């Protein structure tokens, strides 16, 4: 054995590979894997370290408390919740603190903190914060992925997250927006879908980002988005358009602000938040925001994917999109925002719509030849995917001409 290795290192590497296989193929095998910790003191520490490294929620930590400390209690709503039977002592929290410090990632399957456990967890946080010598509750927490906007852990993130956090993925339509500005220095991945006010707070602080690779934000005012240009390590940029929330003003091309990313995703999503005025129905389809991105911003990328929620898909939307490509094509070179997409290698347009939106007029379903021909200006384009465009037809000659100009492309 090489001198740089010892038995503990080899055992840990073997167990790490076994743990990875169980996670990827059969999560039900974790019980058997955990049972190995009771077989030998030589491997128990390594197994426990791997088991507590990544959690689906913070609730397993709560059940490390002594049995005589917490108990299920039926509240006035006839639902159960955990409650303390007595005031916790420092010795009661030793196991909780010990394993909390081993947690490096929380990848929630459902909720990372359910309402039944909220009271106990909140109390534990309060007790921990009162102890000046306790340090951070989860000092090595690097990744947090939450999926449910009603997850009660969201309201405690300000107390849990540290500046060393590498990835933070938050659900859309959150009722509470945690403060993440102090985390931007080390974040590599951020998904933060919020209202324009909180989005602009993030945008105004992007100059603090040192290593952001994957960013997902709502698209708001065009002038606010120029701060993304300061991110020089961006790999994927996802701009979420929620019709009715993006503010499109009469803004010309924003010059000298190049946004660079490998892949740009533009997603038009439905607004699931409750309306304060149920009778007010927005007629916005998100189209103006898409065109604003295409024409107002100088974005250098190799891949562009546009995905429209079926709620906003229609024949008019498809045809309007290609007509706008034509108008961009006819602009003067000095003002042609479309030229900024000339490095594009792959373009994907997806509009999954319902049959109710189909038009019965065959003449109105023809995608404009000029709109399709505008794509020929993308001299490096080798992959074109036009997916779920309903009954809209593409002129065969126009498509053939585009294919010849693209060289050896992949058209879907």
Low-confidence stretches: 1-5, 276-281, 329-337
Rg result? 26 Å
% residues in beta strands:
15-25%
Order of strands, main sheet, comes to: 1-4-5-6-7-8-9-11-13-14-15-16
Number of helices: 12
Structural class: alpha/beta
**Count of DSSP E strands?**
16
Largest sheet: 12 strands, parallel
What value does the average pLDDT take? 78
Summarize the helix and strand pattern as letters.
HHHEHEEHEHEHEEHEEEEHEEHEHEHE
Distance between the terminal alpha carbons, to the nearest Å? 54 Å
Percent of residues in helices: 25-40%
- The coarse silhouette is elongated
Provide a descriptive summary of the structure in words.
The strands form 3 sheets. The chain has a 12-stranded parallel β-sheet with strand order 1-4-5-6-7-8-9-11-13-14-15-16. A two-stranded antiparallel ribbon has the order 2-3. The N and C termini lie far apart (54 Å). It has 412 residues and is α/β, with parallel strands linked by helices. The chain is elongated. Helix 11 links the parallel strand 14 and strand 15. It contains 12 helices and 16 strands. The N terminus is likely disordered.
């Amino acid at each position: 054995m090489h001198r740089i290795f010892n038995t503990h290192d080899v055992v840990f590497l073997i167990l790490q590979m076994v743990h990875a296989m169980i996670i990827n193929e059969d999560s039900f095998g974790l019980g058997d894997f955990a049972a190995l910790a009771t077989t030998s003191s030589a491997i128990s520490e390594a197994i426990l370290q791997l088991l507590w490294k990544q959690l689906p929620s913070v609730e397993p930590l709560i059940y490390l408390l002594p049995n005589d400390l917490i108990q299920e209690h039926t509240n006035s709503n006839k639902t159960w919740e955990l409650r303390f039977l007595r005031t916790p002592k420092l010795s009661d929290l030793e196991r909780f603190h010990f394993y909390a410090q081993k947690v490096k990632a929380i990848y929630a399957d459902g909720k990372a903190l359910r309402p039944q456990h909220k009271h106990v967890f909140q109390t534990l946080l309060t007790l921990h914060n009162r102890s000046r010598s306790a340090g951070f509750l989860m000092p090595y927490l690097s990744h947090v992925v939450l999926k449910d906007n009603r997850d009660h852990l969201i309201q405690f993130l300000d107390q849990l997250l540290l500046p060393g956090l590498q990835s933070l993925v938050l659900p859309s339509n959150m009722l509470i927006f945690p403060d993440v500005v102090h985390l931007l220095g080390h974040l590599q991945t951020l998904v933060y879908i919020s209202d324009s006010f909180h989005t602009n707070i993030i945008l105004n602080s992007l100059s603090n980002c040192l290593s952001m690779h994957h960013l997902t934000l709502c698209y708001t005012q065009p002038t606010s988005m120029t701060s993304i240009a300061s991110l020089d390590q961006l790999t994927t940029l996802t701009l979420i358009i929620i019709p009715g929330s993006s503010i499109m003003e009469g803004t010309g091309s924003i010059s000298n602000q190049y946004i660079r990313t490998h892949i740009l995703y533009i997603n038009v999503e439905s607004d699931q938040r409750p309306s304060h005025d149920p009778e007010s129905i927005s007629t916005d389809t998100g189209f103006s925001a898409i065109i604003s991105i295409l024409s107002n911003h100088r974005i250098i990328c190799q891949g562009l994917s546009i995905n429209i929620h079926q709620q906003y898909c229609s024949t008019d939307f498809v045809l309007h999109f290609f007509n706008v490509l034509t108008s961009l094509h006819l602009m003067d070179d000095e003002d042609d925002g479309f030229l900024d997409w000339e490095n594009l290698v792959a373009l994907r347009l997806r509009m999954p719509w319902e049959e109710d939106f189909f038009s019965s007029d065959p003449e109105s379903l023809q995608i404009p030849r000029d709109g399709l021909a505008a794509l020929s200006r993308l001299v490096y384009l080798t992959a074109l995917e036009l997916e779920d465009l309903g009954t809209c037809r593409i002129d065969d000659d126009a498509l053939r001409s585009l294919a010849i100009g693209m060289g050896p492309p992949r058209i879907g």
